[in-house]
Amino acid sequence: MTALDLSSTVAVVGTGTMGQGIAQVALVAGHPVRLYDAVPGRAREAADAIGARLDRLVEKERLTGDERDAARARLRPADSLAELADCALVVEAVLERLEVKQELFRALEDVVGDDCLLATNTSSLSVTAVGGALRAPGRFVGLHFFNPAPLLPLVEVVSGFATDPASARRAHETARAWGKTPVACADTPGFVVNRVARPFYAEAFAVYEARGADPATIDAVLRESGGFRMGAFELTDLIGQDVNEAVTHSVWQAFFQDVRFTPSLAQRRLVESGRLGRKSGQGWYDYRDGAGRPEPHTAEPAGRPAYVVVKGDLGPARELVGLIREAGVEVREEDGGHGALALPGGGALLLTGGQTSAGTGDVVHFDLALDYRRAARIALAPSGRTSPRTLAEATGLFQALGKKVSVVGDVPGMIVARTVARIIDLAYDAAARGVASKDDIDTAMRLGVNYPLGPFAWSRAWGLGRVYDLLGELHRREPTGRYAPSPALRHHVHVSDAGEGTPS
Question: Can you tell me the distance from the alpha carbon of 8 to that of 79, in angstroms, rounded to the nearest whole number?
């Protein structure tokens, strides 16, 4: 099945931000485009707004003047649905209300030809439920673009229960022809991105609620150690706290209040207070004129230890050994052990495995980093049993490597490790349930939410057995089911992917 021919007319119904963006994508790709909105005059206003954006593309030398003029000539507002009769594809981007979408598609079905592909851009509703209103739901598919649609490459192509595979393939190839990166996925709550991404927000909020660290510090650790483009608090302020919480709540309800997707009480209070993020002037951070941005906690300079003793395999942190040597700190190595850096004062540094420092004596846990060489910040977690000398030596060691150090509360799994572990677990669960392939899930998470690695790539880098062990330890400490490793993850650790690591 091939993509729609460029001579085929594409219609977009709903002319808000997403509708305009989708229309611009189809227009720049070369299609004639019709815009329709139920509010009189809105489609014409949207056409003018798209024309202005085309002008800016010319100014940025991304379009020529001739290409802009040709695109403008192909763009036409429609005053009624009847004017969409000859369209080959209609994409809907109206209110996220099931009855509104169903009513629209019932009306469209009476207007367009039998071979017209019908698509919804819904991000939270069931594609199957929307298409259930149609006489011929086989031609109905989800085309979930990400905002801003002209810039973000990902499109989730969602097959509802009744979607004909040929319709999904045509939608997939059309999105690819428009310069997008499509991923095929089944119609499940949150599709791929909004399902697998929930722990990125949930675990940051959980660390905050446990008084492990403040938002600025958690965000800094996620960015500067985890390699994420934005931290969870600043990202939800950008998205809008009401929007982000609504998606979380929708996924949670759709999964029959599965504890893995439980919304955050702290975020609920933020929404109730009207602090919705950038758009309201206040969220987790204050965006009003003159307001300062809080700084993350950064430890004061400490002296480097004279030496460290490497005991056992440090796993994903083994790169630290070379970095310590390069920094001029003597490295002694001993066989055996469970992977630790022993310090001169008798204490030790351990990569977090879901335990707390309180249960392991004079120990400081350090967090997972995407790349310890490139990481600009490392989080350390001492406990009441950690001696001041051990914390100072641990701090000084990472500072000697050129890292800023954030000392956080003794939270199991720290910040990056617990977040990434839960993302990996949900990804394995989604793949096992046929939501999407492993490759498509990795692609979706990199392109849809700018993760530095897809969850399957990250599991290979970290070692799947270590992920499993960390989640198991977290589950032991909080046996609600939130952290229980999924059957899919357990299967891959014990049976399928021995090469990815086995439990220790």
Answer: 20
Q: How many CA atoms lie within 13 A of 301 on its CB side?
A: 3
Q: How far apart are CA 453 and CA 264, in angstroms?
A: 25
Average pLDDT over residues 76-91: 97
CATH code, domain carrying 40: 3.40.50.720
Amino acid at residue number 370: L
Q: Is 123 a catalytic residue?
A: yes
Q: Which two tokens stand for residue 209?
A: 């609620």
Q: Is 147 a catalytic residue?
A: no
Query: Do 136 and 25 share a domain, yes or no?
Result: yes
Q: Which of 121, 124, 159, 194 is catalytic?
A: 194
Told to judge if 244 belongs to the known catalytic residues of this protein, a careful annotator would answer no
pLDDT at 280 over 70: yes
C-beta neighbour count of 417 within 10 angstroms: 29
The fraction of the chain above a pLDDT of 90, given in percent, is: 93
Q: Are residues 361 and 427 in the same domain?
A: no
Q: What is the number of other CB atoms lying within 10 angstroms of the CB of residue 60?
A: 8
pLDDT over threshold 70, residue 404: yes
Q: Which of 31, 92, 109, 123 is catalytic?
A: 123
What does the H/E/C string look like for 186-248?
Answer: ECCCCCCHHHHCHHHHHHHHHHHHCCCCCHHHHHHHHHHCCCCCCCHHHHHHHHCHHHHHHHH
Q: In which band, very low, low, confident or very high, does the pLDDT at 1 lie, cut at 50, 70 and 90?
A: low
- pLDDT for 36: 98
- Residue 412 CB partners (closer than 8 Å, separation 6+): 352, 354, 355, 356, 418, 473, 474, 477, 478
Both tokens of residue 416?
Answer: 């990056």
Q: Which domain holds residue 152?
A: 10-187
Per-residue pLDDT reduced to its tens digit, 192-215: 999 999 999 999 999 999 999 999
